[in-house]
Amino acid sequence: MLNLCRIAIRAYKQLTLFVGFLYIITMINIDLTQYKPFLVQKMKDGYAVRNSTEWGILIKSFPFDIYPEMKDIPKNDWFDEDGDEEFVPDVPVFKAYEAEVEFIYEGARDTGYTNVRNFLSYLATNGLNRIYDSYTSIGRQNVRYQKQSDAKLYRNSTKEYIVFKVNLKFNDPTTMITLSL
Known about the structure:
Blueprint: H1 2-28, E1 38-42, E2 50-51, E3 57-61, E4 75-76, E5 85-86, E6 97-108, H2 112-124, E7 129-133, E8 138-155, E9 159-170
Antiparallel strand pairs: 1-2, 1-7, 3-6, 4-5, 6-9, 7-8, 8-9
């Protein structure tokens, strides 16, 4: 029985190494020219627009809402009448929304952790952000960092890749902005 467990563990380790190796080969051969930089600026006065390439980071996936969800409107549900009575404003008011944005870091070996951490620190500190995705040409303001998740590290002898996701909250779901360097 013990020998069978050892065989199973060895097979699992070999499979894990193979899958990891296969993914690393894919990452090494990935065409990073298809990904674009992410521009970010603090909402406070005095902050310059910064390019995510300063940290070696490109945006991989930027989900967005074409038209945001409306806020609930006030209504009265009269007990003695059919249906309900709603106040529908002439100008709609929209809910804030959250999105999970995926990034990819590429840089020299053993530099990824520091660069990704510095990028996340910039997003998380000193208040709200203006952001702009240069691929979709969509920009928003009053954006807040919420959390980082799902980081994966891949290395070869000279390079390092980190794919990670960041949850952002878009407090202003309608104002479109552009940022440029």
